[in-house]
Amino acid sequence: MPNDLVVLRPQGLYCPAGDFYIDPWRPVERAVLTHAHSDHARRGSAHYLAHADSAGTLRNRLGADITLQTLAYGEAVTHQGVTVSLHPAGHVLGSAQVRIEHAGQVWVASGDYKLEDDGTCPPFEPVRCHTFITESTFGLPIYRWPAQPVLFADINAWWAANAAAGKASVLYAYAFGKAQRLLHGVDSSIGPIVVHGAVEPLNAVYRAAGVPLPPTHRVTDPQLTKADLRRALVLAPPSAAGTPWLKRFGEHSDAFASGWMLVRGARRRRGVDRGFVMSDHADWPGLQKAIGATGAERIIVTHGSTDVMVRWLCEQGLDAQVFATEYGGDDLDDNPSTAAEEPASAPTSEAAP
Ligand SMILES: [Zn+2]
Ligand SMILES: [Zn+2]
């Protein structure tokens, strides 16, 4: 429609009135970024605007010399008569929803978000708007996450049992966001925590932002004895699976933490002993709650189960449509191709017998 505040262009989501893009997938003049995951934050744009807590990760990933303006949550800037502000999305450190106001219209682009407060970034805040642009990574009714105390009790019990049996516990999780959430939530009194080289730089960014994380070791740490390694929790990105780096831990149990672990066969396909259902995205009830809380009458769905979500929204009497974006392709947890097979008809724990 002619007065839409955000339209779809080949480069990404575009705000014509303000002449800027939100999370563009091609280089542009002005990019407002929701967060530093690589499907949302891409190289080559001339100017970036993002939350202050994203600065460290963005400079790491896009180049130390990028032109980056940062905002605090709730702080507004006006560009060509369009007011832009960032609001907590609860997804990873520095993640934000982008609120755009112009000529009496308010639009909000969510980026990725999650509702449950995990203690590693400010929780999602619903923002009232006329049009809400939402993700739908887990937009199917089967996706319902266990409450965090249940999740962490499971992870701690698995770690403690392995430690008692003299085996390291290797837990695969995406290095930015998921790994820090695990660190923050596990019971660090069970044993030492060893992190892969891809994880520690992100830990440093979180610690610098004031997020409390337990002490972490590198496997080369001379303080660690062989006995320490046999009762350690080892956090590594999925790409570390099958690499020589794991040999240092000897016989170990392994597990994968992802929302896709709710899908039948996902754990088996990963070839790990355990699957923990954990996501930095909203589950089906979370998406519905978040969308409802905006009060928006028009909803645009960007990635994930877009068609199912649009159908459901239309049934609720809302004006809903899809923007075909290039989000969701990079990080494993965002990647629908890892869940290509049919979802299980009922959630299964996928626990090894
Ligand atoms: Zn993300
Ligand atoms: Zn994403």
CATH class term of the largest domain: Alpha Beta
- From the 3D coordinates, which CATH architecture of the largest domain would you assign? 4-Layer Sandwich
Mean pLDDT across every amino acid position: 92
Bound molecules: zinc ion
Element order: H for helix, E for strand: EEEEEHEEEEEEHEHEHHEEHEHEHE
Query: What is the rounded Rg?
Result: 21 Å
User: Helix share of residues?
Assistant: 10-25%
Sum up the overall morphology in one term: globular
Unreliable spans are 330-353
Number of helical segments with 4 or more residues: 8
| CATH homology superfamily of the largest domain | Ribonuclease Z/Hydroxyacylglutathione hydrolase-like
Strand order of the largest sheet: 7-8-9-10-11-17-18
Strand element count? 18
The tally of domains stands at 2
Biggest sheet details: 7 strands, mixed
Relative strand content: 15-25%
Distance between the termini: 55 Å
CATH topology (fold) name of the largest domain: Metallo-beta-lactamase, Chain A
SS-based class = alpha/beta
Secondary structure layout plus pairing:
Elements: E1 7-9, E2 12-15, E3 20-22, E4 30-32, E5 47-51, H1 55-62, E6 68-71, E7 76-79, E8 82-88, E9 96-102, E10 105-109, E11 131-136, H2 148-164, E12 168-172, H3 178-185, E13 193-195, H4 200-208, H5 226-229, E14 233-236, E15 252-257, H6 266-270, E16 274-276, H7 284-294, E17 298-304, H8 306-315, E18 319-322
Parallel strand pairs: 3-4, 4-5, 5-6, 10-11, 11-17, 12-14, 12-15, 13-14, 15-16, 17-18
Antiparallel strand pairs: 1-2, 2-3, 7-8, 8-9, 9-10
Bound molecules: zinc ion (2 copies).
Organism: Acidovorax temperans
Keywords: Exonuclease, Hydrolase, Nuclease
Biased composition (Low complexity): 336-353
